[in-house]
Design a protein that fits this description.
It comes from Spirosoma validum. This protein is an alpha/beta fold and about 120 residues long. It is built from 2 helices and 8 strands; from the N terminus they run βαββββαβββ. Strands 1-4-3-2 form a 4-stranded mixed sheet, with helices on one face.
Length: about 120
């Protein structure tokens, strides 16, 4: 029998008590071009398609703690330069994973853990 598996990641859908603040961070700091939108029966929300992934930030309906079990990782060319340019406070120093891979973790305005990933050849 053929194994059924997913074809890939298509979206990152987040909710926030302050969706405008969170969307502004993802747009202005990370460069994900979120824009306010409304379609169908959905309430007004922030969304965009960026590099083949649909991003959306919705108004949080239920109060929940920040996400610590799933960490979104964003590729950058220069972690130190990006962190410096945007005054980002890292959770831990930049970690060398070997084979030219480096990571650094930080929090978004809602406290969700995010990660920068950099590969040096």
């Amino acid at each position: 029998m053929h194994a059924v598996q997913v074809k890939g990641l298509t979206g990152v859908i987040m909710s926030s008590p302050e969706p405008s603040r969170l969307a502004t961070f993802y747009r202005d700091v990370l460069g994900i071009p979120l824009a306010l939108n409304r379609h169908g029966n959905t309430p007004e929300h922030w969304e965009c398609n960026y590099n083949g992934i649909h991003y959306a930030v919705l108004k949080q309906k239920v109060t929940t703690p920040a996400n610590v079990n799933t960490v979104l990782s964003f590729a950058v060319d220069d972690i130190e330069g990006f962190v410096s340019a945007h005054n980002i406070l890292l959770i831990h120093p930049i970690m060398d994973l070997g084979e030219g891979a480096f990571i650094a973790s930080f929090n978004d305005p809602d406290g969700n853990i995010l990660r920068f990933w950099m590969t040096k050849n």
